[in-house]
Amino acid sequence: MKRYYVFLVSILLLAALIICIGPQKMWEVIKTANVWLILLAVFIHLFVVWIRSLRWGYIIKQPWEFKKNFIVKTIGLFAGNFTPMRTGGEVLSAVAGTNINQITLSEGLSAGLTERFFDSIIVAVLLITCAFLIPKVRLIAILGGLVSLGLLLLIYLINWREDTSLWIYNRVHSILRFLPISEEFVENFYQKFTSGLKSIVEYTRSFSSLKNLLIVLFLTAGSWIFECVRLYVVFIAFNVEISFVAIIIIFLLANIIGIITVLPGGIGSIELSLTGLFMLFGISSTLGGSIAMVDRLASFWVVTALGIIFSAYYARDILDEIKRYTIGLKSSEK
């Protein structure tokens, strides 16, 4: 039942944002946006997903399986969009990988944790670097960078250190029970993770050559930079000028806030935080809220739609797992 409450909170936050700004005002602003640039933003985000699918394929040693990797990554991102802190993304990517890439679950979980590790590195570096360029958000940017560094350390101890990973995960597991996640999902993941822990760490270590890590780091940096480019293009579509450094800080902080609030995919919290951060840079709430909603449409909801299509067409059993674990829906009896 708590899963339904958390989705209700997300819907209420979105509704509050639209009502406070005024739906008619937002629509009048949105109508002025350049449609072609919005479509460009959509294609940029699809390119981001392709980069992440290339990274996934490289980690599981199938870099040239472009179609399979894109499908698996889209399904994983879709699952992450509907779980608190996007915790379901790595698990469902691994499950999809076993069906589509024909890899083991341990390899898939190792790849997912490795991806999250490098995401944390790039977010921390970008935030801390940009913090010194824009004084007005320096403190909050540095705090966001420190949160990312903390997550980075946690993933390292879990994904590379077998002696500490089980101890840490047992503590994390007790916290997950209080989050709006299906108990079935939590227990199922616990069993799969602990039973394959040694294989997960062994696969991660076997992959961790300097060359491999540098390539993954490069792909990760590219994906995050292009995410910021997408948001920058949305700003241009609304004929608004803003520095790219400010875009980086705003985008990364909003995503960290979305994770901390443990709302599924940051729905509601990311839109609100984007709007609030835009206002710090002199953008009106009406314009900022409109940009936030359009950017989320071009990214979050486009990937969600593709994820549903891919899951239904290529792996119906995966779609059933996503429904059961992330939004509490049961498959119909046959």
Gist?
The chain contains 15 helices and no strands.
Question: What attributes characterize this protein structure?
Answer:
15 helices; about 0% strand; about 325 residues; single chain; mainly alpha
Describe this structure in words.
This protein has 334 residues and is mainly α. The protein has 15 helices and no strands. It has helices spanning 2-21, 23-30, 35-59, 66-81, 87-100, 105-131, 138-159, 162-176, 183-195, 197-207, 210-237, 244-260, 269-280, 285-314, 316-326. Helix 6 (105-131) crosses helix 12 (244-260) and helix 12 packs antiparallel against helix 13. The longest helix is centred in the last third of the chain and has 30 residues, at 285-314. The two termini are 25 Å apart. 47% of the residues are buried.
